[in-house]
Amino acid sequence: MSDVADFFTDPWRLEFMRRGLVAAVLVSVVAAVVGSYVILKGMAFISDALPHASFGGIAIAFALGGSLYVGGAIAALTTALLIGFVSRRGLVRSDTAIGILFVGSFALGLAVISRERNYTGDLFSFVFGNVLAVTWNDVYLTGGIGALVLAFVAIFYKELLFTSYDPAMAAAAGLPVPAFQYALLALVALTTVIAVQTIGVILVVALLITPAATAQLLVRSLPAMMALGALIGAASSLIGLYVAWHADLSASASIVLTATALFIVAFAFAPRRGAVWQLIPSLNSRPAAQPQVLKE
Amino acid sequence: MLGEHSSHRECAVDVRDLRAGYHGRPALEDVTFTIETGCLAGLVGPNGSGKSTLLKVMLGLHKPWSGEVLIFGHTERPGHGDVGYTPQSELVDWTFPVSVYDVVLMGRYGKLGLVRRPGKRDREVAMAALERVRLIDRAERQIGELSGGEQRRALIARALAQEADLLLLDEPLAGLDATAQHDLLRLLEELRTEGKTLFVATHDLSCVAADFDHAVLLNNRVIAFGRPADVFTEDKLSEAFQRHLFVLPQGTTIIGP
User: Fold this and answer.
1) pLDDT single digits (tens) B68-127
2) CB contact under 8 A, B147 and A161
3) N or C end of chain A, less CB within 10 A?
């Protein structure tokens, strides 16, 4: 019996594991809330681009001896604004603009690293993530920025909902639609900044979209999607860290793989909508969510 | 004789010498027409004739190059609540996780301004609008679960929740089956009876000819406006639609024995 207890308590005897858990849970909760908008607006590509773009700023800040967070934030926010600006001009498709800008910034980061003789291991931990290397200062900063992001979403819930759902109507109602579209990009950029240390440039997109996408399969309102997404993200962090501890795997990879597994389960078995129920005709005799079945 | 002031009051919409377009290319030229208050008016023209641009200018979303649009005698600015709007169905994201009630409540957001949450009166207005379009029993459904006709009625409920006296409807009849189209037309007629002015962009000439009070025939400029019977003459229709519409005299046999 004590073996079972040890299995669950063992990892948390170590401070870096506890610290890593707090950081991962904070990041995944914020990412799931912002990620709900990312999914609904079809911004998955942007949410992959901004972490990559932040890497350019992180590398330059590292070379200059400045704050890596500030460097990452400047690069991510600048890229977000440029993407918004270039795609609003209408000369270049927005996915093309995203592709050009984020690879440019990421390549800048690689160029800077290639000139650094020392400590490049630290920089590569930003690429692949190193949740167990976060300091308490990182955790406080993550909590602070995360709280700002969540507060913005809560205060401007109505505006973000309206401008995301129906921009034309929102503009006709007098809302400053471009301002909120830029704000949403900035929220993704800030989430990126706190997530790269924990989960790594390459895997941030998974925290933004996978838990929220899992939640979308299970619930039908935006607040519920955000709340359940946050819960799934937090659970993925916890389970992922157990997996990493016991199987001696990369922590960020374990967290993302856990989230992916939960998505697959929801995709297959979501009540009424799951792929498995669709494949079994006898279970599918009572249609649930077919829009055209309802009579006028 | 009516004075200048009172004649303004009669007109819900007064568009004068309007020119507008995109990137230097005109979409509307010398557009002038009026719509009287309390009438059901159709906006008819081929694709690319500037219908959507005209609606955008009327909503204050697109700045005209010259000319003016007076709504109940004054210039419309976004958010001032005189004009309700329903977008084309294809432009609405029906997969979004919002309920029908949520969508209708959005009609109140313009009046609320930033940050403020909808209050008791806003919720009452939204429920009344749902009641008005006979969707009250669908209030909690996700918006995409509604049928095509119900979706259009939900958008109209949102425009009603704005408490605007003029409603601009962009293609509300498109893609509906005959029954749903009939129901929607009946709703539009009821709203007119209640004093609303409705300006409906549509491709359905026969609906406008049969049921509307007023028609504006548009092809970058106004070909004609007035009573549908006067507007939909063979000359004017072929001028608007060029070779894309054949006007058959009544009694023509299309499929013979």
Assistant:
1) 899 888 876 666 667 899 988 888 888 899 999 999 999 998 888 888 889 999 999 999
2) no
3) N
List CB contacts (< 8 A) between A40 and chain B: 93, 96-97
Here the CATH number for the domain that contains residue B196 is 3.40.50.300
| Burial class (CB within 10 angstroms; exposed 0-12, middle 13-18, buried 19+) of B54 | buried
**Which ranges in B1-80 belong to alpha helices (H)?**
4-10, 51-59
Positive or negative, the CA dihedral A276, A280, A285, A290 is positive
Assess if residue B218 is contained within a domain.
Answer: yes
Pick from B39, B79, B17: nearest CA to B166: B39
Q: Which H or E run includes A219?
A: none
Picking from A162, A225, A291, the nearest residue to B144 by CB comes out as A291
Q: B97 vs A175: CB contact, 8 Å cut-off? A: no
Task: Please indicate whether, in this complex, the C-beta atoms of B80 and A219 are within 8 angstroms of each other.
Answer: no
How distant is the Cα of A173 from the closest Cα of chain B, in angstroms? 4
Q: Is B106 on the interface with A (CB under 8 A)?
A: yes
In this complex, the residue of A158, A170, A296 whose CB is nearest that of residue B183 is A296
Tell whether B60 lies on the interface with A, counting CB pairs under 8 A: yes
Is there a domain that residue B74 lies in?
no
Residue B216, domain extent:
41-49+79-239
How many domains does chain B contain in total? 1
Lowest mean pLDDT of A276-290, B23-37, B40-54, B234-248, name the range: A276-290
Residue B194, min C-alpha distance to chain A (Å): 23
